[in-house]
Structure formats: C-alpha cells, structure tokens
Amino acid sequence: MPPFSGMRCLVVDDEPRLRRVLVRLLEGEGFACAEAGSGVEALQELEKGAVPLVISDLRMPEMDGVTLLREIVTRWPGTAVIVVTAVAEVESAVACLQMGALDYVAKPFHLDEVRARVSQALDKRRLIIENRNYQAGLEERVEAQARRIEELFLEGVHALVFALEAKDAYTRGHSMRVANYSVEIARALDLDKDLIDTIALGAELHDVGKIGVSEAVLHKAGKLSDAEYRHIMEHTVIGARILGPLMRDAPGALSIVRSHHERLDGTGFPDSLKGDQIPFEARLVSVADAFDAMTSVRPYRPSLSVKHALRELEEGKGVQFDAEIVKAFLRAFAEGASLPIPTPQLQPLRLPSRAMEARRA
C-alpha cells in the first residue's frame, strides 16, 4: 500500500503542465489530489474540507502564493504547506518558512527531492499537531488543578465562616447582607466584574476575625467598656492574620478584612489610616457594614430606623465615610425605599478571576 494512501493533497500552480507533473507524482505515493490554478481557487477547494498538504507556487495571478500561505496559516493551521519557487526566489521561500510554510522546493526540481520534502513536511506536521494536543491537554490539567486549588481555598475559608457562625449567629446574617449591600454599591459605581467579586468575597469574610474575640464580649448586652471595645476591634487584625496565608492572591479582599473599621478622619482601627490611605474596597464595605449594623438588632441596643441610619451615613460623609460611596449607596437603594434588605440565602464564595490567574501561574 502506498505510504500516504487516501490522504488529501492540493496542488496549486497556474501552469497546468507543472501541476500535472506534481499530481502524478503524489498520486503515485497514494495521495488523493485536487488541483487549483490560483490562490482564489485554492481557498475555494480548502473550504470544502480539511487538506493535510498543500503544495503551492509563489508566482500566480489573482492571489500569489505568499497571500495564500498567510490565509492557510490563519484559517487552517493544521495544513502543511510546501512552496514551490524559482532558484532566484530563495529569499522569498525563506520568508515563507518564517510565516509558517514547512518546506520549499526550488525549480527545476527532481521528483525524488519532492518525495523527500513531502515526507519531511508531513512528519513536521505530525509533530506540530502532537505538540498542540499535548499543550491543550496540559492546559486542561492546569485548569483542573487550578479549580482544585480554588476548592481547597474556599473549603478552608468556609470552615472559618462556619466556626464563626457557631460562635455568633448574628455575624453570618450580617456578613451576607453586607456582601449584598457592597455588591449593589459596586454596581452603582460601575466597577468591573473582578473588582465586584473581590469586594463580595472580602465583605462576606470581613468579620471572620471575631472567631478570636471573647464570646462574653460578643454577646454582652450592655455598653462595652473601652477595653472591651478595643478587644472586639482586634477582630480586624485577627481576621487578616488568619486569612493572610489563604488570600495571598486576593489582596483587595484581605484589605477589606483588615481595614473596614478605618475612618476617613484617621481615628479608625487598626492602623489609623486616613483618607485615600484606606484601600478603596475597605472604604466601600465600611459603608455597607455600618448601615447593616445600625439597622440590625444587637445584644446591647435595638435596631435604628432606616431613616435614622441614612442620616448617620450622610452626617458621616468626609469624616467616617467616603462621600462618593455614600452617594452610590443611596443611588443603589433608591434613597432608602428598598431598605433594609432581608438576609439572603447562602451563596457559594467565589475567588476573583485575577486571583485564580495568579494561582495558575
């Protein structure tokens, strides 16, 4: 049986005599050959179905061999192309090799040389396809591994959240509502999806450090002493310390955990940051956090009305809160008409895409 039995091949040349010479040679090797007298005809033939091998002259009417090669490399990357050129056009042939041709034959050529070049070009094609398939398989394995890394990351974070919920049921509902408020504020500010995902993740985890706070302080019905207030505010540092190893690739979310109790006037916790020193994500979540805390029943006080809470946000603009973020909050919730929101159903945590890309790298 001929070595290339049944394999399709396209011979492209505006000289019928030369085409027939090549076709007879290739058919003797088992190829099923088609012919084209120009680059335009060749494209029409290629559009009928995949062709593993194209042998094309460089000088042709309508569309020359270089233009044809460019089209084939772009549209049919699995096709091996051998260019046929005159001896004086060797530089053009070399340029074609750089564009993606797998070999060239110079006229006048010997039939044995054509056979050898065809065999070599198809060997190269086979290796290229095998390499592409390997790379595609490798990318799939990397993707699967990255998904598993994300799963492990989120499993670890969920374990912390559930531990906190067991300790302080208020925090879970509060954190979910703060996440929803924060996402709506972010949308009102027309932030990109990855930043919104970062804010959602950080908002839901912002109070996770309370797992290290005394239950007696968390559940105290009366007013907190200064020492107790400082103790409860340590949850920002505790949370950042706990999540730090898990969230190296999500620094924006981690900044929310540490800095959501900072104030624009520099009197907040834990680092007394001022103004733009406070990460944007943390400034945004602090508005959502404060509103939900004010409109929720706590062990030491009843909930405030929506009107009262909105007035507190307005009065805190430029002092405690970022004024533009407060405005976005009001836009997002129709000046308070749709407030407060109920506790949403538990949604799976999601790692921002940039963090996933970093983990893949």
What key phrases describe this protein's structure?
Rossmann fold; Hypothetical protein af1432; 57% helix; alpha/beta; five-stranded parallel beta sheet; 361 residues; 2 domains; 15 helices
Write the layout of secondary structure elements.
Blueprint: E1 8-12, H1 16-28, E2 32-36, H2 39-46, E3 53-57, H3 65-75, E4 80-86, H4 90-99, E5 103-107, H5 111-167, H6 169-188, H7 193-205, H8 215-218, H9 226-233, H10 235-243, H11 251-259, H12 280-294, H13 306-315, H14 323-332, H15 353-360
Parallel strand pairs: 1-2, 1-3, 3-4, 4-5
Helix pairs in contact: 2-3, 5-6, 6-7, 6-12, 6-14, 7-11, 7-12, 10-11, 11-12, 12-13
Describe the 3D structure.
α2 (39-46) packs parallel to α3, α6 (169-188) packs across α12 and α12 packs antiparallel against α13. The model has no long low-confidence stretch (mean pLDDT 87). The chain is 57% helix and 7% strand. The two termini are 49 Å apart. The chain has 15 helices and 5 strands. The longest helix has 57 residues, at 111-167.
